[in-house]
Amino acid sequence: MNPVPTDASQESAQGLPQARVVTRDRLSLVWLLPVLALLVGGWLAYKTLSERGPTIRIEFRTAAGLEAGKTKVKFKDVSIGQVTAIDVSEDLSKVIVSAELKQGSEKFLTDKTRFWVARPRITASQISGLETLLSGAYVAIDPGRGGKRQDRFVGLPTPPVISINEPGSQLQLRSQELGSLNLGSPVYYRQIQVGQVVGYSLDEDSRAVTIDVFVAQPHDRLVVASTRFWNASGIDVRLGADGVSIDTDSLLSVLIGGIAFDNPDTLESTSTAVEPGQFFPLYASRADAHERIYLTKEPYLLIFTGSMRGLNIGAPVSLRGIQIGKVLDIQLEFDPEKLDFVIPVLIEIELERIHFPIQGGRERILSEDPDILNKLVQSGLRAQLKTGSLLTGQLYIEFDFHSDAPSARLTRQGEYRVIPTLPTPLDAVTTRLNRILAKVEDFPLDKIGEDLSATMAGARDLLDAEELKNSLSELELTLRDLRVLTARLDSETAPELTAALRDGRTLLRSANAMIAPDAPINIEIKRTMQTISAAARSIRTLADYLERHPEALIQGKGGGR
Question: Exposed end of the chain (fewer CB within 10 Å): N or C?
């Protein structure tokens, strides 16, 4: 038990300080600072997360020039993001680049968006990325609109030639081979560059190449369904039956290749718009592109026996100088009956090139009248080889009418109709020369030589004869006398003849003076003629009077008459 305090102890306790209990508030001001810091941190975190752009992954073949935390993502030299990480794929075939873009870039990340690494590149058609020599490589973006949203992309190995958003039209051409075309090769319209080659690929069947070209506005409206494209690369030099032809479009196309297009006036209407997915054939040259296409073609067979050197497949077939077809095939066959070789030549005639008079409201073609060709052959239509160019020696086939040609008919060999032929002019000349030589060989040259020898011997005997020598001596004496006579004429007769001519000239001068218009004798003659004319008029008057009054011869002229 505790002892009970006494009064003394109470007095001593009252002298000591007493503890005072103060009741405080539950929330202290000290805790406001952590709470405030927590709120600011949360707001900053929210702001950072809310303003953070999308994160994308791009696959590249190599990460040359890229560095995480430093390499920028740029669009038109404006930074819109940064590379955050670079990793290697599991199969070690590519690298995966992670990049963080600015807020608002989500709408441009579609399946049409393209990425590539901008670094210095020098090709035959363009030079790009020179600015990266100082600033370093960066990831370039070509944003696309209207596609499906995605955040994983496959980077392009090379920069695209044009931007997706550039106004214009992209077309597809198809060719048997690429030739000298490359990315960036120019596209020309009448030697004005209006576009570029933006891509090419081998078709699935590996039989052709598809070439993507881009034609910028407003030139893309020039491309219609009937437009013809041709390869304008390099210099087109052709040696054919027509001689040497050289064609080129521009110096740039000679160096790096190019494509040209035009709308030929001879084809169908050029107002038809290009259909979606339409492929345009890429012709090898301007001449092939502008050549009119005929659908109706008929094969015929020609049989030749002479030399065919200079005739090639594709050589023209002409009718009076106008091309109507071409050569398809040339073969060599042996004829066991004649023990000789013949050369069948298969040709193709475009029948629509030969126009017939319109009957029944439409125009006929040759294949619709099978008898007319046989009539033409009976009239002298023949095929003949002719030289197209003396420079190249190329031959072509010419159809024409020959009135002196042997009679022939249109025959058939297998599935082809055979048109008669004539030998070439050179073969005809050779045949004629052989005939002449054969006739020359039939001449009795030995007998002619013997006769000529005998004639020469007789002539020699005649020249050696004494009579001929005497005749020549007498001829020499005669010529000497003639020379003396000529000298005498020059010395004696010539002066006298000159004087006579001088006297004759004087006489003629006097005669001219006498008959001149102002000569006295001429004046007197005029007066005499006038007097005679007056007398004749008087006689005529008297005769008229006596005719009317014959009695005047007896009675005389009366006073009243």
Answer: N
The whole-angstrom separation of Cα 313 and Cα 328 is 6
Q: Alpha-carbon distance 449 to 455, whole Å?
A: 10
Domain parsing of the chain, residue ranges: 49-160, 166-293, 297-434, 447-504, 520-554
Coil vs helix vs strand at 232: coil
**Rounded Cα distance, 195 and 344, in Å:** 48
Quick check: 259 and 187 in contact, CB under 8 A?
A: yes
For residue 346, CA distances in Å to 252, 291, 296, 386 come to 41, 21, 16, 17
Token pair of 131 as six digits: 């600015």
3-state secondary structure of 513: helix
Task: State pTM to two decimals.
Answer: 0.48
* Burial class of residue 480, CB neighbours in 10 A (0-12, 13-18, 19+): exposed
Which residues 6+ apart lie within 8 Å of 182 measured at CB? 123, 124, 125, 197, 256, 257
CA 459 → CA 83, 455, 462, 464, 526, distances in Å? 119, 6, 5, 9, 78
Which of 263, 203, 198 is closest to 230 using CA atoms? 263
Please report where in the chains the tokens 């049409």 appear, as a residue: 112
Three-class DSSP category at 145: coil
Q: Which pLDDT value is given to residue 1?
A: 47
Distance CA 47, CA 41 (A): 10
Model pLDDT for residues 246-262, shown as the tens digit of each residue:
555 555 555 567 899 98
| Distances, alpha carbon 30 to alpha carbons 25, 38, 39, 40, 232, in Å | 12, 14, 15, 17, 85
Q: What is the pLDDT of residues 530-541, one digit of tens each?
A: 888 888 888 888
- The residue length of the chain stands at 561
Spans in the chain with pLDDT lower than 50: 1, 241, 267-269, 560-561
Please check whether residue 358 is in contact with residue 280, taking contact to mean a CB–CB distance below 8 angstroms.
Answer: no
Residue 188, CB half-sphere, CA atoms under 13 Å: how many?
19
Q: Name the token pair of 519.
A: 């000569």
Least Cα distance to 169 among 32, 273, 287, 321 occurs for 273
Distance CA 59, CA 53 (A): 19
pLDDT confidence of residue 92: 86
Distances in Å between the Cα of 333 and the Cα atoms of 71, 303, 336 are 74, 10, 10
Helix axes 466-488, 445-464, angle to 10 degrees: 60
Handedness of CA 249, 251, 254, 256 (dihedral sign): negative
Q: CA nearest 310: which of 390, 414, 192?
A: 390
Instruction: Classify 489 as helix, strand or coil.
Output: helix
CA 253 to chain centroid: 14
